[in-house]
Amino acid sequence: METGSPDDAGTAWATQAADPARDEPVWTGLPPGLLRMRRLLLVVWLGLLTLAAGVLPPLFLDPLWAALALLPLALLGWGWVMLGRNWRSWRYAERADDLLISRGVLWREETVVPYGRMQLVEVTSGPVERRFGLASVQLHTAAAATDATIPGLDPAEAERLRDHLTELGEARSAGL
Question: pTM for this structure?
């Protein structure tokens, strides 16, 4: 049989699909509450900037300077779309030996954190995050460059993930 023939390609694919080590990880996206929180913050801050740009320049300068208020409004529209794209790009997957975190729209970044290398798993939630019922999970390893964060999780999921990762980390590091 020739190399690269359709039958050969079909056999190779069937072999890969049957191999559980090559299966794709099951990715979990972030909850929509994170997107709502970030968009609300965008509207509040750029709304205040739009108000200031529309009111202050006409008081001290020519009324035509009120057109400056259009710039923050354009930025609001662009930011609204970009926040949605960024939110959709974040995902994580728990595999047998490590945790994968993937993010980024233009520059994709995938972080692999082996369970045995985890030293500390933190769940944090600031005042705005608590208001929206969100929490973040931060993973610390010996190398500062491999610290990873999963933002905007439901608090129950963040605690479950922390406990699960801690158990796996203790089990994997016991042999070191």
Answer: 0.73
